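G., before I forget:
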Amino acid sequence: MVNDRGQIYTMEGVAAGLIMLLTAYIVISTTSIYTPGDTHIPDMQLEQLGSDVLAMMDTPDTNGGESRLIELVRGGTGTGDALRDEFLAGCKMRSGGPDDDLRAQVYLSYRTSGGSVKMIPLSSTDPEFTGRENTVRVTRWVQLQTRPTTGMPGDMALRPQAVLVEVLLWRA
Amino acid sequence: MRPESEDGVMSLDFLAGFTIFMLALIMVVSMVPGLLAGLESSGIDYDAVAYRTGVILVEDPGWPVYPPWEMNDASHKGEIQRIGLAVSKETPNVLLSTKVDKLFEAGFFAPEDYRNKAIFGDIPYSYNFSLNISQAGGNYELKQTGSPLPPGYGYIRRVVKIKEPGVANVGYSNSYTAADPLSPARTFTIRLDFNQLLDPKRGPAYRIDPRTEPVTVKIDLDNYLVSPHAEATLQNVTFWKMDPTRPNPRFTRIPFSYNDMDSNLYTLTLNSGPSNLVPAQPVRGSIALELQPAATSQFTLDQNSILDIRFAFQEAAEDEPQHTSINGTYLYDYGNVDLPPLKIGVLEVAIW
């Protein structure tokens, strides 16, 4: 008679364990969990939108005309808020209601007469801006023929130069 | 004698059963991922397809380019390879209004056409395209095609500018009046010099290109009537072309179906009613001619050609003095044609 020594009593246990592991694996692998790594999609959409708006602001409406972006950059800090508001108005356009929870801030990088590069805020700071927002950054080069008389820092080089307009764009 | 120990003995039934069970388990496990593939989340994929479709629509002029795809009528729809709305490859985000109108024309494209010529997916995606164009006075004109939006979909929004065709408004000028009231006939010519119009120095977004956009001429004839009570007789409108690069260049009349009214080719409006190009009827008020690119493409013109549109006025009786003084050549060029400024708009693509 065969006695029960050496038999694997826990066969059911092993099988059940395997089945449980397999179930857990299948459930986890078929559920998509939104992780910070996936935020590149909304970021890409926002970045595309922002760069489109800057590009269109930099496109004159008539041949030989001056683009709205250059006009607003030449006003410096005096027209910085107008630049931000027009940029946001372009971003908020939709076929339904406007996409109202977008915020932006505009910065300008320029070369000083000493030759170094400096950055100044062109628009006033958003009151709710903490610095921890998930922002995207869109930029556009603007050619200035001479230093604007108002709204620009005094150490800006007088010669013609390209300045960099940077816009931080985020969803509040 | 000690009985034989049975320690370490495993039954054969158990071994066979366990082996079969393990084989079955391995087979099932290897099949499971395939069984569940259809349930995997693919929202990210929709976003990618929407992005790609948006790029095709706003950064590409479509194919064919010359003659442009939007010129094809319903019977030649198969010749359209790709739907793109940009004025040219060099001007992304600047859309041509004639292409936009064709894309959203009700009943022209079937859902299958949008899938094959703009979305290019292996899956029969559902879609919704909308374009909101900013008009003067803060209003918006909305163009839309596709199905209503479900709760979840892939999405992209592109900000664009829209280029609209120019219009030549011929007002009163001494340059276009004939001094001799008894002149046998009046010929008023609208001249399009392609070499000048298609000057590469001018950006495509600000160019007058009769090969892709309609040519519109509006003549205010009341200003040119000799007597305000006597209407002038417009005998015909004819098209002539000249190639200055040829030896002995001269204008030749272009063979065309002048007697057939076809709004796909041209629209001539006289006394606020449509007419063919051989009206031979008295007119007053405004004469409006809109020549479509579909007609211009039949004229076999190149970038050096000169196209004349001649309006011939002559009264029926031979000895009767002419009732209009309009005469001469009006240049359809950047100085005379009112090119409307670009309009801003937003194109949205949703795919699911």
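The two ends of chain A are 78 Å apart (CA to CA). The mean pLDDT of chain A is 84.

More on Monday.
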